[in-house]
Amino acid sequence: MNERTLIQPDTEFINYLKKNGGDTLKECYQCATCSVVCSLSPQHEAFPRKEMIAAGWGQKDKLISDPDVWLCHGCTDCSTYCPRGAKPADVLGAVRSYIIEFFAFPRFMGRIVKKPAYLIPLLLVPFIILFLFLYNNFDGNFSQLNEGTVRFSRFLPHIIVEAFFIGGNILIFIFAAIGLFRFWKNLNTITPVAKKQSFLGVLFATISEILTHKNFNTCSENPSRFWGHLLIFYGFLGAMLTAGLAVGALVLYDLSPIPLFHPIKILGNLSGIALVIGCIVVAVHRFRTKSEKGSNTYNDWVLILFVFLVAVTGLLTQTLRLLETPFLAYNTYFVHMVFIFFLLWYAPYSKLAHMFYRTLAMVYLKMNGRDKKAAIFLNMLILTFLIRW
To answer: Which of 199, 169, 172 is nearest to 360 (CA)?
Structure first.
């Protein structure tokens, strides 16, 4: 008598995937169209077909240990050509969301950040903390906000902002590192890395690949997504660099406010404009493809919305300062700071964490020699013809 491995489906995991964008996963009938059209799928053990099988059977442990999940960049080519409308890109997106939540530290934060019911309480945390410092700074007399030249250092002293920005980020990076360490350890329990290459060497090569965004530019159906993501990515990096340079300019040269045409200010403004345009492009793309090619989850929209709000309120704060409108400038600046800390403090638990988990998974795959498959353009053309005709 042959021994058989019994599969015990994790129904809670299946329900999670359905509620977080993967509600079509049971439509899959394993034709492998998704693996054929995907330009990022490796030649051997191609995805996302095997991931769709595992998701349909609720094999949680297998999927959270599957680094191939992170090879998917969500271009939705697979969903476009799927003859059953199973939308593999959405299912893999839901799996990635679960992985971030599963390995998060503390774990409860991974759950509540993704629930709409907790949006207001999460926003209130930075709001209340900053308001208490502001109240103490003005002794409760906010009428002073209508007086004199606009100086944000008088409104919220730089030492307070820097303490929150630097101290808060250090704490968040520690929490993020714990989650990433758990993720890496879990990958290695399945298949330890070959260790033929140094971790740092592969990491730098991976970062270089991410900076060029070449994997986001392989999509044949949604090219606008590449440009939107590129603008947001570099706009975010530019904004972070601007913040760091501004702190350095303040500490070393007591430069505050920074002149409008100073290189640091120019970098900040260009980054803000890039973020605004990128968010608009991504939002328009999502509205256009919502029903045909992919779903839009709360997790997706929260990130897009708050990146957009951070950029808009930042640009607006500067404009109101130049127009010398104290009341509006100070209040806009306060809202801007609340949005910034909301975005940064909850980064390890939101979709922003993708960049860290994806980077680590790609390092793992490169160290184990997971190469892309050979060109299959003829197969794609034949398959496209059969599907459309």
So the answer is: 199
Residues 6+ apart with CB under 8 A from 29: 84, 86
**DSSP secondary structure, 286-307, as one string:** HHHHTTTT----HHHHHHHHHH
Q: How far apart are CA 117 and CA 148, in angstroms?
A: 41
Reported as a single tens digit per residue, the pLDDT across 124-168 is 999 998 888 888 877 777 777 777 788 887 787 877 777 777 888
Alpha-carbon span 7 to 244, nearest angstrom: 51
* Distance in angstroms between the alpha carbons of the first and the last residue of the chain: 47
3-state secondary structure of 42: strand
**How many whole angstroms separate alpha carbon 165 and alpha carbon 97?**
26
- This prediction has a pTM of 0.87
Query: Residue 73 carries which DSSP code?
Result: -
In DSSP terms, 42 is beta-bridged to: 372
Domains and CATH numbers, the chain: 11-103+373-388 (1.10.1060), 108-367 (no CATH)
